[in-house]
């Protein structure tokens, strides 16, 4: 496997470490200052709001020649975005903390989206066709490990105080510039196509690609549901069980540890995308229902691990299918289209999760989450372009 791809994976790992820790901490901070799960969920959702423009970001990345410079600038801005929030939580007024939290989350989300588009193109360029599944497995395993560490960090960092915690995260995100500097990806081909033509070409590709359209619909539903998990787990630990944040980190760390195992195992899984997704979604749905029914945090560890394994397998299978089905010169636009349509759902999912908790209790919210994940499988008979791909 190309050494530059390994540096790319290292850069992604540091980014995921910082962003996942920030995602969890922003919910905890907002819930502490406002007492509102809806406002806390919106803070989580602000990370996903920039994805509404992800398709246009992808169209720009596909045209740009100096992608490495753009990636470096995005990394630097992302780290700097946490400094005003560090100052706001020190000053204390709730309105200032909410405003600074939402602004920081938006900037972190936007710059991360730029980096995701660059990584999508570089992954296609740096991996040979026979390396797609192994590369996707390594990429997702490292990403899951980084997220697991990121979910474990808040339980420790929050004890230092909110301001110091944000300063540490800013340093972690800035450190991602080191492996980024070592990536030796070929420069992008300067395109004579103007921005409008690039966007139109991408739209035409989305219209003609049944695979991508189906992946976007399935991703929309799955990410809407998975996006609720942050506020649901925070409410479970902070409100329902009255436990310190280390226990929330314990459950989320378990999920991500399971995801690492699932990502590693996925390279040996053979079959169609539809069959693999079906098994994973049923398992994850039942595990979510089990967590909602439990009143003991230690009994939640086993179903949390099941959720993680399922997510790890699904991520690798989906990434490998996308690398297999999407041409290189469309990779950033395809990733952007997926982000815009599917991942943008997470902007609203945190607030929806907060509303569900208020309307049907936390147990009902977990039941809803599990049921929707299992019902996704009803789409496969109609989504043959996606479900029939073998990986």
Topology at a glance:
Blueprint: H1 3-34, H2 37-45, H3 54-63, H4 67-80, H5 82-91, H6 94-126, H7 132-157, H8 162-175, H9 177-182, H10 195-208, H11 210-226, H12 229-240, H13 245-266, H14 273-293, H15 301-325, H16 331-343, H17 345-375, H18 384-387
Helix pairs in contact: 1-2, 1-6, 1-7, 1-8, 2-6, 2-17, 3-6, 3-10, 3-16, 4-6, 4-8, 5-6, 5-8, 6-16, 7-13, 7-15, 11-16, 11-17, 12-13, 12-17, 13-15, 14-15, 14-17
Description:
There is one protein chain. The protein has 391 residues and is mainly α. It has one domain: Up-down Bundle (Growth Hormone, Chain: A), CATH 1.20.1250.20. It has 18 helices and no strands. It has helices at 3-34, 37-45, 54-63, 67-80, 82-91, 94-126, 132-157, 162-175, 177-182, 195-208, 210-226, 229-240, 245-266, 273-293, 301-325, 331-343, 345-375, 384-387. Helix 1 packs antiparallel against helix 8, helix 3 crosses helix 10 and helix 14 packs antiparallel against helix 15 (301-325). The two termini are 19 Å apart.
């Amino acid at each position: 496997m190309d050494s530059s791809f390994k540096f790319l994976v290292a850069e992604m790992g540091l980014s995921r470490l910082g962003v996942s820790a920030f995602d969890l901490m922003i919910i905890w901070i907002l819930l502490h200052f406002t007492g509102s799960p809806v406002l806390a969920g919106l803070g989580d959702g602000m990370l996903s709001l920039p994805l509404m423009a992800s398709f246009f970001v992808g169209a720009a990345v596909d045209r740009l020649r100096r992608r490495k410079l753009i990636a470096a600038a995005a990394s630097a801005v992302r780290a700097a975005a946490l400094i005003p929030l560090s100052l706001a939580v020190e000053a204390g007024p709730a309105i200032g903390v909410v405003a600074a939290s939402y602004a920081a989350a938006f900037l972190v989300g936007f710059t991360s989206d730029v980096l995701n588009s660059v990584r999508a193109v570089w992954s296609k360029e740096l991996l040979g066709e026979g390396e797609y599944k192994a590369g996707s497995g390594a990429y997702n395993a490292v990403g899951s490990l980084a997220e697991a560490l990121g979910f474990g960090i808040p339980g420790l960092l929050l004890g230092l105080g909110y301001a110091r915690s944000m300063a540490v995260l800013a340093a972690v995100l800035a450190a991602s510039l080191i492996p980024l500097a070592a990536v030796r990806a070929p420069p992008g081909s300067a395109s004579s196509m103007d921005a409008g033509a690039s966007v139109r070409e991408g739209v035409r590709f989305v219209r003609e690609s049944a695979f991508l359209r189906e992946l976007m619909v399935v991703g929309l539903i799955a990410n809407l549901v998975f996006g609720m998990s942050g506020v649901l787990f925070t409410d479970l630990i902070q409100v329902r069980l009255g436990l310190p944040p280390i226990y929330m980190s314990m459950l989320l760390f378990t999920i991500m540890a399971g995801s690492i195992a699932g990502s590693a195992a996925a390279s040996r899984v053979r079959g169609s995308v539809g069959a693999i997704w079906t098994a994973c979604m049923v398992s994850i749905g039942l595990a979510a229902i089990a967590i909602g029914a439990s009143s003991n945090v230690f009994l939640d560890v086993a179903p949390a691990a099941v959720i993680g394994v399922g997510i790890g397998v699904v991520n690798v299978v989906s990434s490998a299918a996308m690398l297999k089905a999407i041409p290189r010169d469309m990779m950033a636009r395809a990733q952007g289209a997926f982000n815009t349509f599917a991942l943008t759902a997470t902007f609203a999912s945190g607030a929806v999760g907060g509303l569900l908790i208020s309307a049907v209790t936390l147990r009902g919210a977990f039941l809803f989450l599990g049921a929707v994940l299992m019902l996704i499988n009803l789409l496969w008979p109609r989504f043959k372009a996606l479900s029939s791909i073998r990986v």
